[in-house]
Fold this protein.
Amino acid sequence: HIDKPLRRHEWTSRDRTWTRSELAQEREDFFDTRVTGRPEIWQTVHAALQVLWDPISQDAQDDGSNGLATAQMILSAAEISLPTGNLANGVYDALGNYYQLPEWVVCDPRNVQESREEGPKAHISTAGDDTAADDDLSDDDDDDDDEIEGRKREKGKEVIDVREQVALRARLSSNGQDIKVSIAESETVRSVARKIAQEAGLVSTKKIRIAYMGKILKENSSLSSQNWQTGHVVNALVFDR
């Protein structure tokens, strides 16, 4: 199948007036009711769309394209092809199955309303906003904590029990190479990403984000706390810093 680079879709709703809360609910219903195609492909498409809908909550605002590059990485890692580059025209999986996406699932219309009751000045908080904000606020602290943690390891002040170590295989998005590292089950995703980058010999201008089952993992939590199972391959998405 032809695979063109992902680009943003823009549209104006003419047959109905959409509010943000209605879009959020109907998108959730849409993905909950998919019965054709492969579930893991729908899951991956959903993850890519979440990045496009709200790059900040998905920690993708700093990829240089406000989430577009991150969404492209997620789709490419799952071998999902875009015949026109526009998700509103549907996608294909590696087996040739077609997945159709309505415009209102792909992105908000230009004339979206904040709410029906209070007009455009109202702000509706959707589920997860508070925790996403908390995660954003804590990111800087996590960076500092990881740096301190890294320095402790370098100085030999931290001893990790070998019995707690598990093997992890990560597939690089840049060249498809598999990288094997040993990690502690309680280790943060950010720390694991640094190990993968070091083992892969990536230059300092590159960084890694880890994706699993079509979802970019939170960097301040462990793999296992985000449902990763020992032995499963993760995707190591390579970005420019």
In short: Confidence is low (pLDDT under 50) at residues 118-142, 152-158.
